[in-house]
Amino acid sequence: MKKLLTAILATLLVITLAGCGSKLQKYDVGNGLVFSLPAGFEQSSEDNFGFILSNENSLQNVSDDEFTKKVMIVMGNRETFEELTGYGLDFKGNVHDYVDYIQKYSPYDVTDVVDKANYSYFEYVTNGYFYRVVGYKSADSFYTVNFVCYDSATEAKANFDSYCDAVKVK
Q1: Which of 71, 77, 90, 168 has its CA 20 to 30 A from that of 24?
Q2: Distance between CA 45 and CA 56 in Å, rounded?
C-alpha cells in the first residue's frame, strides 16, 4: 500500500511540475482559431490579415539580445471553401493541396510541404526573418497562419512545432 501511495504522489508531483514549465495561455482570435502561446501576446488587426498576435510590447524591458531571441508574430487569414470555389479553386477539403498551392506560388525560396496530423506547412527565410506558413482546415474553411520570428531566434523557432500542434480549430 505504501508503494502504491508513493507512486501516486510521485506521479502527481511530476504532473504538477511539468505543468509549471509550460506557462501557455489561450488566445482566441475570433475566427475559428485558438492559439496556445506564452503570456504577453496582444491581438491587433491590419488590412492584409484577419488577425495578428504579437508579443513585442511585453518584451520592451529586456535586452536587445533577449528581445531578438523571443519576439514573435502570428498572423493569418481564413478562406471559406465557398470563397475559394469562387476563385476557381477546389482543394477537395485537402489541407496539403491548399498549402502546396500557396507554396507553389510563393516568390521565396521555400521548403517542401510537411504534413502533420492536423496541418501542413512550409518554411522560408527572407530579410532576416524566419516564416513557417501553416495551413489548417475547419468544416467550411482553410486557414493560412504565419508564425514569424528573427531567423537567428533559435529559442522561438524551437517552440514552433508545439505552438502549431496546440492550435485548436473550431
Answers
A1: 77
A2: 14
